[in-house]
Amino acid sequence: MPDSNKKTQILDALEELLKKKSIEHISVSEIASKAGIGKGSIYYYFPSKDAILDALIRRNYEQPLQIAKTLSSQTNVSSFTRMAMLFQACHDSSAVFLRHNQTSATNAQALAFLWQKHLNYLISELKPVLSEIISQGIACGEIDFDYPDALSEIALIVIAIKFNNYIVPSTPEETKETIQGLISLLEKGTGIPAGTLEYLSLIE
Question: Residue 115's closest CA among 11, 200, 23?
């Protein structure tokens, strides 16, 4: 059975190495040496360096997503309130990522690679939850839309990218305009009463 302490040592080692070097310049041998274990032992816990990085991203940024991942079962709370909490979790998780990595990645290319990994994780984790919330809103007549999965993905991508201003740098005014456009599309395209999603413009 895999030793959870050894897995933690491996993840800690990669995290420390990332503070000084970009991921493409870190070898499995270096990770093993930093973790104080043999290189061969690494592959007992992780099949590749990419797998170690994926596990590190899950560990570091999963906490802001935990509440959001339980929301789909809370049908006593309105779908709009749950959407608000989930969008906030998306924003918070991305903000934590940027604060953590802008001081540790050695160059823009390395940070872009890590950001792509994080964004993929974020969307894959939150999309099913948001889709379920939207589907429940459709079922109870709060939302009128035929493609909950597509709507979830569109909303999450826009929020993750625009609120954190990394992939497409924008002025505060440009970001606000984009979010207002998203709000208008969501409300008009789904039959949601105007002003219901205005909270999106308040997330900072």
Answer: 23
